[in-house]
Design a protein that fits this description.
Radius of gyration: 24 Å
Strand content: 35-45%
Number of helices: 4
Length: about 350
């Protein structure tokens, strides 16, 4: 078109927000419609349906048997796979996708929006503690031995990742791994760089029991060697919502924006809640953070940086018209987004 002339522009499927595809607009003639998020959480394979194949892909990724990008799961991104919304991709996300695919849950935690009241970014600090142990080797036949991984004082266990150290002076070959829990799924991979067998498991049933055998590992010992060759070294249960008698370091998702437990702790120290026409942010972290507020068309209405140790922040929303707005809180490790209702002037 020449300067000063007018042309009709057809707009379709416009991603407005800068991160996480929060707001998407589509058009009919003369009408712009703002829809709910375009993300179909959990659908990493991109076929429009959340099913067990998606859950299995997430489990494969957690143990390292799936490397991204992969043609079988073109939609596999942190925004899609992190259905718990904690900033990491773990076996807990796979467990939630399994549960969703069979109808045990109808919504993922990441989809739960703040309307009224307080919602913390992470679970309460009052986490249960599960005691884990690996059995002594049980001879099955010849040089084949079985090791059982067991748990006691189990509360609400859905998923776990386990780092099992293999002694190369004892173990010749890992032959097989078998789940022992009903309706459970398991994936594992051996890492020869540090002689670690990484195991990820999920269960469709939340385990609450005094004692349970989680899975068994079958290995071939070197000829004549009977001493233990497998040792439980690390464990991450329900992505940290449950503690154990083993450290979780090194088991968080390597592609996640949050890299270590210290960063998780720092972000967990920030929470937000809505009181009348005021947004209250409680900051107990040691990191600086930014607060932004967008309207549902993606226009930024508020943008403020806060230094570390700033304490609590109250943001008055009286001047903003009534409606729903997107609040984004971001520090160096993660962005937390939520929908905030405003009653108007």
């Amino acid at each position: 078109a020449s300067t000063g002339s007018f042309s009709t522009i057809s707009l379709r499927n416009i991603v407005i927000d800068e991160s996480n595809k929060l707001v998407v607009a589509s058009t009919n003639p003369g009408i712009i419609t703002v829809n709910t998020p375009a993300i179909r959480y959990g659908d990493v394979t991109g076929n429009g349906v959340v099913n067990v194949f998606d859950a299995q892909k997430v489990l494969d990724y957690v143990v390292g048997t799936l490397t991204l990008p992969d043609a079988s799961c073109p939609n596999f991104t942190p925004a899609v796979a992190d259905v718990s919304g904690n900033g990491t991709i773990t076996s807990y996300d796979a467990a939630l996708i399994f549960q969703y695919s069979v109808g045990l849950i109808s919504q993922f935690p990441v989809e739960q929006k703040v309307v009224f009241g307080k919602r913390s970014m992470f679970a309460s600090s009052n986490v249960p503690v599960v005691n884990l142990a690996i059995s002594s080797p049980q001879n099955i036949s010849g040089d084949i031995y079985k090791y059982d991984v067991q748990a006691t004082d189990v509360q609400d266990l859905m998923a776990g990742e386990f780092g099992i150290a293999c002694d190369p002076a004892v173990v010749s070959t890992i032959k097989d791994i078998q789940p022992s829990v009903r309706n459970s799924n398991i994936q594992a991979q051996y890492d020869g760089t540090d002689n670690t067998y990484k195991v990820a498991m999920t269960t469709n049933d939340r385990l609450d029991t005094a004692s349970v055998k989680l899975f068994s590992i079958f290995v071939q010992h070197k000829a004549g060697v009977t001493q233990p060759g497998l040792h439980l070294a690390k464990a991450l249960l329900n992505e940290g919502k449950i503690s154990s008698n083993f450290p979780a370091s090194g088991l968080l998702d390597p592609a996640a924006s949050i890299k270590n437990p210290a960063a998780l702790k720092a972000l967990a120290a920030i929470s937000m809640h809505f009181v009348k026409n005021s947004l209250r942010i409680e900051n107990r972290s040691e990191r600086a953070f930014t607060v932004r507020i967008y309207n549902m068309l993606g226009r930024m209405l508020f943008n403020q940086d806060y230094e570390a140790h700033v304490g609590n922040v109250a943001i008055a929303l009286n001047s903003i018209p009534a409606g729903l707005y997107i609040c984004s809180i971001k520090n160096a490790e993660k962005t937390f987004n939520s929908v905030v209702p405003v009653a108007g002037r």
